[in-house]
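Re-run with default settings, no changes from the original entry. Doing this only to confirm the output is reproducible before filing.
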Amino acid sequence: MTSAMTARFSRIDALVLLVMLVAFGWAYRNAVSSGPYTYDEADYMTAGSHGFAANYLERPSLSVMDFVKAGLNRGMQAGKRKSLSEWIRGSGDITFYRHFHGPVYFYWISAVGPLVHFDEAAMRRSGFVFHLLTFVAIYLGVLLLAERDARLAALLASFLFLFSDPDVGTASQITPHIPYVFFTTLSLLLFARFLQTGRFAWWHAALAACAFAFCSIEYAILLLITFAICLWIFRERLFGNCTRPQLVRFATRSIILFFGILLLLWPIGLLELSAIKSYFYIGYLALLRKGSFGTEPFYMIWWHRVVASPLEYGLAVVCGLFAAVRWRRLSSTGALLLFLIYAALMLLTTLKNTSLNPTYVSSILPAMAVVSGIVLAAWLGRLPAAPKAVMATILLVLIAIGGVWHLVDQQRRAHDFNLNQVLVENVRQGGSIAAIVVPYEYMPTISYYFPQMKVHPILPTDNAAAVLESVREGSYRNLVYAGQNEDELPRRLRALYRVDAQTLGPAGNGRQLFLYRLS
């Protein structure tokens, strides 16, 4: 702990952190689903269960050139995209199962998984480790950064994050966004301390955390852009007294440190350039698979997000706008500008994302929690002691009430009807099923729990004729299909096979999911 931290950190802070860590761990112990892994989760677990060595060496994996060729030959034509997915899954490409993200989270899975026997609830619960680490980092970081009412700012900022609905929702999934949130937030806090002190040790620590973030999620490139912008804005203060040889040494050490950590954590990503696969993949989804993240208008998605957590988003908007105008007065070192720039870049990147999955906004809100905590503490600091204590208590209680509300909702969702569980149990009861046709959203789940089974996907664009053709060409005798008894496909099936239809449950939009056994 630094001398500045020692001066500000007391037994009160240690007690606050300990109480909140224990209380959160106890309250959220049953707030995760124990159901089967869903689409992304199943793929991530498949990659992680291959172990550390397979993820470190990325074996098996397509080369970048083979990856690009496959995308151009099969991915560019709608009719061949189904065969592309099957072909890559058949190759066992571990980077595909990671969805081309970095390996750090998969090292975590490979370490934790065997300890808990890859139990679904335990694996999901393990994500709270990173969530709580981020909480501690925000508390200690703001305690150092805030220039007025530091403890109050640290309390408000860390509480806003700890009970953040999107971030708790992210932490309770299987996703590499979990460590990314931690490393990104830690990196921003360390860089802010560099702006505050001018000491290069803080810059090196920030850059090291950034390298870990880069090995988690490709969004970390926005963190590097944020750093570059701030280094330029504050160049006179940071480097005004540096000679050219000193600047060269600074740049050289920074490059060596960043790429040295990348080489240590993700050697194949650097040596074989597999890290660029994720950017090709993002471009492919954005240009050719626009419905991959959902079909609702983006403004409706944001409306759902704000309604689900109005206090959090409301404070982020109000405090963010205030900080954008008054950042010089709120922080003489410009630290708040750093968090605002990163949040703005992430917002622009994800603005039109049409998925309600909280992972896509999970790294914006910690940055805005820091801004909100410092701004709110500055506002409250103008009040006399008694009104300030009352207002601060009210804010903290409101944040906690929001957290309780989210906890109740999280527990309800964790125990809701789980169609994946019904599907897996029914397929398992089917005994010696060797091959099956399923809607594409269930393909990873079935592949994970039944790795020896041949699985053929149904795409959303497939009509009844296309599905029937797949069944007949592959001589499949098991089919999972979302529809009604009077739909065209069941009628066609009954004309060709003896059909045993079993209703699995509601699949949305008034449809039911059926398991058809054909003979």
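The radius of gyration is 25 Å. The mean pLDDT is 88.
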